[in-house]
Amino acid sequence: MTDATASTDSSTAPSFDDPSGHSPLQGNHPGFSEARRAAAALTQLTGVARHRIAVVLGSGWGGAAELIGKTTHTIPTAELPGFAAPSVPGHNPTVRSVRLNRTGSEDGAGAGHALIFGSRTHYYEHRDAGAVAHTVRTAAAAGAEIVVLTNGCGSLVPEWAPGTPVLVADHINLTGATPLVGANFVDLTDLYSPRIREIAREVDSSLPEGVYVQFSGPQYETPAEVRYAKAIGGDLVGMSTALDAIAARHAGLEVFGMSLVTNAAAGFSGEPLSHAEVVEAGEAAGPRISALLAGIIDRL
User: Fold this and answer.
1) Segment 198-230, tens digit of pLDDT
2) Is residue 114 part of a domain?
3) What is the pTM for the complete model shown?
4) ∠58-62-68 over CA atoms, to 5°?
5) Are strands 209-214 and 236-238 parallel, antiparallel or unpaired?
6) In this protein, which residues make up the domain named Nucleoside phosphorylase (predicted)?
7) Where in the sequence numbering do the catalytic residues fall?
8) CA–CA dist 62, 194 (Å, integer)
9) Taken in order 177, 133, 56, 171, is the CA torsion positive or negative?
10) CATH number of the domain that 108 lies in?
11) What letter would DSSP give residue 192?
12) CB 269 within 8 Å of CB 160
């Protein structure tokens, strides 16, 4: 349900049956119609005709929602077409409509609204890349220009201890899946926006960047798999983001990715991995990375 103060102004809502207006989601690829239905539902529930930015919050990043702007509506994602309640402990199954702060703007112009997804659909939940893509496709149908993808991950770089935020410069998709169907030859050169990465370094010049490797999960990687990921150019390992990013580029969005190192990857620390420790590491780093992410979004 929406907040008690929610209001609806359907007269401002664009038609999501027709991919026109502000939406970059063009064509009729499988999954696009359902994304348009979800976006139309968001417009009806929030009264906001266009959400300019979308943010997907991974492990450890939940606190950023409070700093990005004023939440005007909070909606359980399971109430929207095409979404199901997440099955992962510690994930927040809501989407917020947020009025952006935009304090960095000289004239306050262009602030607009953002969609903040408190969780994502992981590939390991359904083995369905289309279900994974539904979040970013809904964002595109809602008029977003930019999607910010965050995650918690394991580090292959000894210097990147738990609590370190890392810019995603590129990815390697080891899931064996894709959200694309048919002859959609999408160029992934500079998939992770160099423009926004430069903005991020203006906010914090110490931010490192690396290559994220997505495994299918839900099991953690073996030490041998981690060594393989390192050998092929990976710096970070996890179970999300790459499929989301592919779908976002296909949908016409500018993509920015940030990882939070929550643990050393298997075989690097000599300690067993656990989801509880990942959540704890994210909570410990939460205030710092939330402020960092809000500072970057404030400049977009």
Assistant:
1) 999 999 999 999 999 999 999 999 999 999 999
2) yes
3) 0.88
4) 110
5) parallel
6) 53-297
7) 221
8) 25
9) positive
10) 3.40.50.1580
11) B
12) no
pLDDT (tens digit per residue) in 84-134: 876 666 557 899 999 998 654 444 445 799 999 998 999 999 999 999 999
Residue 261 binned pLDDT confidence (cut-offs 50, 70, 90): very high
Q: Which residue has tokens 């030490």?
A: 223
Which residues span the domain enclosing 139? 25-297
Whole-angstrom distance, CA of residue 126 vs CA of residue 39: 22
* Residue 192 is assigned to a structural domain of this protein: yes
**Which residues are annotated as part of the binding site for a purine D-ribonucleoside?**
221, 263
Percent with pLDDT over 90 in the chain: 73
Give the chain's domain count: 1
Instruction: Give the annotated binding-site residues for phosphate.
Output: 59, 91, 120-122, 152, 240
Which of 194, 211, 195, 196 is CA-nearest to residue 295?
196
Q: How far is CA 176 from CA 214, 217, 230, in A?
A: 10, 12, 18
